[in-house]
TrEMBL record:
Residues 1090-1100, 1116-1129 have a biased composition (Basic and acidic residues). This is Tyrosine-protein kinase ephrin type A/B receptor-like domain-containing protein. Residues 1-19 form the signal peptide. Residues 492-535 form the Tyrosine-protein kinase ephrin type A/B receptor-like domain. Keywords: Membrane, Signal, Transmembrane, Transmembrane helix. PANTHER family: INSULIN-LIKE GROWTH FACTOR BINDING PROTEIN,N-TERMINAL, SUSHI, VON WILLEBRAND FACTOR TYPE A, EGF AND PENTRAXIN DOMAIN-CONTAINING PROTEIN 1-LIKE. It holds the Pfam family Ephrin_rec_like. The chain crosses the membrane at residues 643-664, 780-803, 823-843, 864-884, 904-921, 928-948, 968-989. It comes from Durusdinium trenchii.
Length: 1135
């Protein structure tokens, strides 16, 4: 078994040795693969062409690549159909033999073919140019010529040449030997009649004779008009004659066709132009014919004595040992013009490699670039292989190997030296570290990105040098570093890529290591700025007069903003989304686009300067054109109906003023009737709407629904512009004047009418107005509208600031504060505020006098009925609180017009103060009204809280709100701590002194407590008075009519307390309250002594009653009353 195994291994090894061409060749298992882009193994792909020279040199290259270079290689299964196919195959096209370039499927996958040798690209220049244009990155790399060119010319067979030379010393390989003037060369060749015309193609059957360009050049340079046919379009085609029209006859034998020497070419007329021009120019008696089949053509040449077209290197006619005919030397200047009477230059035969071979195997690429043979060497090789079939690759192995073993002196020069690095590579040591010189170098490696391949001083090798600062290289095997383009830099050496300048930086030069910073307040829109002009204004700045100025409030300025872009409504980036624009609710004139005005209303749409919506006008879009008034839908025409409405409204006001006196009821009623309750409710509603109207003046971005409601509420503080008030009054100043005069006129109308009623003629008819009632009606009007009156009076002082430094009146934003119109309005405001202040002072004086008037001059209460009628007697002064609330809720808007947050915070303080007083005193006559007032006030506070949430936080507001918040915080804690500390202090004081015992309760109970003994004496007095009355009906009626509801509740609660907690009743319930501890002793006196004093007092009173009764003759009644007083029932004073 061991012997059998050894034999198998030995045979296998022997087979490997036999399979190698070179004794020291690299065995297959030791060969290396190329790496695909996906890092997979791939053999070197070699392309074959269907001609012997290609087979021979490609097979030689395959053996050298595998055994000497040590790479896996394989011959591609599909051969190129022609030399153009080599261009497409090495370029990575899948269907590289397809006729249509667009259908060759190029660039779909990594190429599998890396090398194409013996490629006759000189005949495929147009295809090569087209491919490079369509696929520049895939175009094959031309590694230079093969060392020989493809030589095409006219040939003569060796037999004919030898016969002529032997018979007369005539050299048929020289063009002048065929001139019929001196020689009869026809006798050495076959006649054209001996050729089989069935193998030929007619000249007119799609051959090169039909090429108008070629035949035009022929006629141009030979002048042979008989050899061409002129067509209708002025072009020329070849003119064939002879038997069947298969032959084109040269001028020297055109008169006698049998004197012509047959000259044959193949396909559609290979090399036809030079053949025709040579025949005519040098008097060669040629009859040119075309045999399309390559096999028929080669057979005809081999079986007849003819002149023929052929090329080398090729094996087709090697056995004939043909002689090429020598023509005058090649003249490139003539050939380029179409004059081809000289010899040809030969066709360029190239070596093509795939563009990725530079990275995948530079050693193989170098080998291909050095591979070179001369024409004689190739022809010698072809002589040995001329009989080998192209269908059998194995048959070519031995001839190729034979040549390699015999010609090492030739191919050894093609093999690269390990330390002679090629372009794109650098020397490395045994560890793969790149070296600056060949010292210690063992091989080459591809230069990585960030370096370039620099030639060493010996001129034979290279090193990988890092790219200097200001340059970079992103690819491996680079021959140079690329300078950083403007807009990018490389700060360090060895940069793989140049870094674009960041935003705010630029670089306008090549090859720089650092970017330049843009000037102050400028930046760039994008990275990679390459010019100083790309530095534009930063976000929040705008270019004006070549300077960047801050945009400020009301102007949105993205980076790159300019005044021109603002006016044009365009963006610096062209998208339209980042253009500078006026913010919504702001306005500016196109003439002064940076002078920004703030619009309190929704009519400033922003965008480009000068934009208002709804046909509005003015710097705050608050005006409508003359003859129009503003609504939510835009400006509407005033028209006759609107004037009629206002005329009717004024008339209605006059009627209302006159009729109010007669409908007024100035009586004060302790109990509130349903009608009075309805009236008070109406007054509350009107006051609430006025308060909402005041809130509307605060600059808060209300949601659409709330905005509409607040605009409606603004009507109650006489903001009548949406109702077309300007149609009747005119401009803003006129409207304000009319509003002030309206107040003054209505307020003074009642006193004036009252004075007129005192005229004798009216007074005699009983139509005179009462003075006090007239004052009451006037006061009632001022009381109802006092909030509106104060707000109207404060309007000229509510100035909000524009971003441009100017300020406007909040209600009339087109009136600028500090101007003449503003001064006029302030004078009018002072007038109406004086009236309001006078009214408030008069009411304060009346409130002070009211308690005295109620007992001495009740008729005077008629004058202040409006002030006290809605409140219970104990809170008769509360109307003054409501009056004071009116100006206080408008003052925050005056103090902090530009700071809505502060404005709302101050309003909340005012309303909380009002709510505290209202809850403390419950002033309204009906409990329901107290409840409604409390709820409405709390809801208004909720609305203020919502408004404070909606208000955008302004930097100016934060400090003030912080101060207010800190004050409230510490004040709240301070008040609570004060109570605790004060209580502890009073406890200590009570233990230390008698004064503390009296002071403590007084402070805790917010006043001096009444003496229980005095209370008891009052109760006794009431008790005896009740006992003295026989009929309590009158008392019941008096309580029903004279006591208010609130007083009745207080009496009931007091009786309940006496009945339960003081045990003065008959065991009644606590009636909704917790009963106090039963009292066994009401004072320091004992109950027994108290009863004794009561009996003694009752006896004294009984004696007094008896004496009075005797005097009046009522002794019986006195006796009965005395008996009752002496012996009262025991349960009347039970506790």
């Amino acid at each position: 078994m061991f012997c059998l195994t050894f034999l198998i291994v030995s045979l296998f090894h022997a087979r490997q040795v036999i399979a190698l061409c070179l004794a020291n060749g690299t065995p297959e298992h030791a060969r290396q693969y190329l790496q695909t882009d996906a890092l997979e193994n791939m053999s070197v792909g070699l392309l074959l062409g269907p001609w012997q020279s290609n087979f021979a040199v490609t097979k030689i290259a395959e053996i050298l690549v595998t055994e000497v270079l040590g790479l896996h290689a394989k011959l591609h299964s599909e051969m190129m159909a022609n030399s153009a196919g080599a261009i497409f195959a090495v370029g990575g096209c899948v269907d590289f033999n397809h006729a249509d370039l667009g259908q060759k499927k190029c660039g779909l996958q990594e190429t599998q073919i890396h090398v194409a040798l013996d490629a006759w690209v000189g005949v495929a220049v147009s295809e090569q140019t087209a491919f490079q244009k369509m696929y520049p990155s895939l175009a094959p790399e031309d590694m230079g010529g093969m060392g020989y060119r493809g030589f095409e010319t006219m040939y003569v067979t060796q037999s004919a040449f030898q016969e002529a030379y032997d018979s007369e010393g005539l050299a048929l390989n020289f063009y002048l030997s065929y001139n019929t003037t001196h020689h009869d060369t026809k006798r050495y060749f076959t006649s054209i009649s001996d050729l089989n015309v069935s193998d030929m193609i007619s000249c007119a059957d799609g051959t090169s004779f039909m090429n108008t360009e070629h035949m035009g050049n022929y006629y141009r340079w030979t002048g042979d008009i008989d050899g061409v046919t002129l067509q209708l379009d002025g072009t020329y085609i070849g003119k064939c004659s002879g038997p069947g029209g298969y032959w084109w006859l040269a001028p020297s034998c055109r008169h006698d066709v049998m004197a012509c020497i047959p000259l044959v070419t193949a396909s559609n007329g290979w090399f036809l132009q030079p053949l025709l021009q040579w025949s005519t120019a040098y008097g060669i008696p040629a009859a040119v014919g075309i045999i399309p089949s390559f096999a028929d053509w080669s057979r005809t040449v081999k079986t007849t004595r003819s002149l023929f077209y052929w090329w080398v290197p090729d094996t087709t006619f090697l056995e004939l040992q043909p002689e090429s005919i020598v023509f005058p030397p090649f003249r490139a200047s003539e050939w380029v013009l179409g004059n081809k009477r000289t010899s040809g230059s030969g066709t360029y035969i190239a070596k093509l490699t795939s563009p990725n071979l530079r990275q995948k195997s530079p050693r193989l690429r170098s080998f291909i670039s050095k591979l070179s043979m001369d024409l004689n060497t190739v022809m010698d090789i072809l002589q040995d292989v001329r009989t080998l079939p192209l269908s059998s690759l194995d048959a070519w192995q031995d001839p190729a190997c034979s040549w390699i073993t015999r010609h090492e002196h030739i191919w050894s020069k093609w093999i690269p030296v390990d330390t002679n690095c090629f372009l794109g590579f650098g020397v490395v040591d045994e560890h793969g570290t790149f070296l600056p010189s060949k010292t210690g170098a063992v091989s080459c490696d591809v230069c990585p990105p960030g370096t370039f391949s620099e030639e060493l001083s010996d001129g034979q090798s290279r090193r990988c040098t890092p790219c200097p600062p200001g340059s970079s290289q992103s690819k491996a095997s680079a021959s140079h570093c690329d300078e950083c383009k403007p807009g990018s830099v490389a700060a360090t050496e060895g940069s793989v890529a140049c870094t674009p300048c960041g935003v705010g930086l630029y670089q306008d030069a090549f090859g720089k290591a650092a970017c330049v910073t843009c000037a102050d307040d400028t930046t760039t829109l994008l990275k990679g700025a390459s010019d100083k002009e790309e530095c534009v204004c930063k976000s929040g700045f705008i270019e004006s007069n070549r300077q960047c100025v801050p945009c400020g409030e009301g102007l949105t300025c993205p980076s790159g903003s300019t005044v021109k872009l603002l006016l044009d409504g365009e963006s610096s980036g062209g998208s339209g989304e980042d253009r500078p624009q006026i913010s919504q609710s702001y306005f500016s004139w196109p003439e002064e686009p940076l002078e920004i005005y703030k619009c309190p209303g929704p009519h400033c749409a922003g965008g480009t300067p000068g934009t208002c919506v709804g046909g509005r006008l003015g710097p705050t879009c608050d005006e409508c054109p003359s003859g129009m008034y503003g609504t939510s839908d835009g400006c509407q025409s005033c028209g006759i109906p609107m004037m009629a409405v206002w005329t009717g409204g004024i008339c209605g006001v006059l009627v209302l003023v006159f009729g109010t006196y007669y409908f007024a009821n100035p009586r004060y009623m302790l109990k509130v009737s349903l009608a009075e309750c309805a009236k008070i409710g109406f007054d509350m509603t009107l006051a609430f709407m006025q308060n909402l109207g005041v809130l509307n003046a605060v600059s808060v971005p209300w949601p659409e629904g709330l905005r509409s409601l607040f605009q409606f509420s603004a009507l109650f503080i006489l903001n009548l512009r949406s109702l077309g008030f300007n149609c009747a009054a005119g401009g803003d100043v006129q409207q304000y004047t009319a509003t002030v005069l309206l107040f003054l006129g209505i307020a003074l109308s009642w006193p004036c009418l009252g004075s007129l009623s005192q005229l004798p003629c009216i007074k005699r008819r009983g139509m005179a107005w009462d003075f006090h009632k007239t004052l009451g009606v006037t006061g009632s009007f001022l009381q109802v509208v006092f909030t509106t009156l104060c707000n109207v009076g404060l309007v000229p002082f509510m100035c909000f600031s524009h971003p441009n430094g100017r300020s406007s009146i909040a209600k009339y934003p087109n009136i600028f504060c500090g101007g003449p119109d503003h001064l006029t309005m302030q004078i009018l405001a002072a007038l109406i505020l004086s009236m309001g202040l006078t009214h408030f002072a008069a009411c304060s004086w009346a409130i002070k006098k009211a308690p005295a008037w109620s007992t001495t001059s009740r008729h005077r209460l008629t004058s202040v009925h409006f002030l006290i009628a809605n409140f219970k007697p104990g809170a008769w002064w509360f109307g003054l609180i409501i009056l004071l609330r009116g100006p206080l809720i408008s003052l925050p808007t005056v103090v902090a017009t530009d700071l809505p947050g502060v404005n709302l915070a101050l309003m909340i303080c005012v309303w909380l103060s009002y709510l505290s007083i209202q809850l403390l005193y419950l002033p309204w006559k009906a409990p329901l009204l107290n409840l409604v007032d409390g709820i409405s006030t709390m809801l208004f506070l909720v609305l203020l809280a919502v408004s404070l949430h909606l208000e955008p936080v302004l930097p100016e507001s934060i400090l003030i709100l912080e101060i207010i918040g800190l004050g409230v915080y510490y004040l709240s804690i301070g008040v609570i701590l004060c109570v605790c500390v004060l209580s502890i202090f009073l406890m200590v004081l009570k233990r230390c002194s008698r004064s503390g015992a009296r002071t403590g309760p007084r402070i805790v109970n917010l006043g001096q407590l009444p003496d229980p003994e005095e209370i008891l004496e009052t109760i006794e007095q009431i008790y005896f008075n009740l006992k003295a009355k026989k009929d309590v009906t009158e008392l019941v009626n008096k309580m029903s009519t004279s006591l208010s509801v609130d007083d009745l509740h207080i009496v009931q609660k007091a009786l309940n307390i006496l009945s339960t907690d003081c045990e003065l009743g008959g065991g009644g319930s606590s009636r909704g309250r917790i009963a106090a501890t039963r009292i066994s002793q009401m004072s320091r006196k004992s109950f027994a002594s108290l009863r004794e004093e009561q009996r003694q007092k009752s006896s004294d009173e009984a004696c007094e009653i008896q004496q009075e009764s005797i005097a009046s003759g009522s002794s019986d009644e006195v006796k009965q009353e005395r008996d009752e007083l002496k012996d009262p029932p025991s349960d009347d004073i039970s506790i």
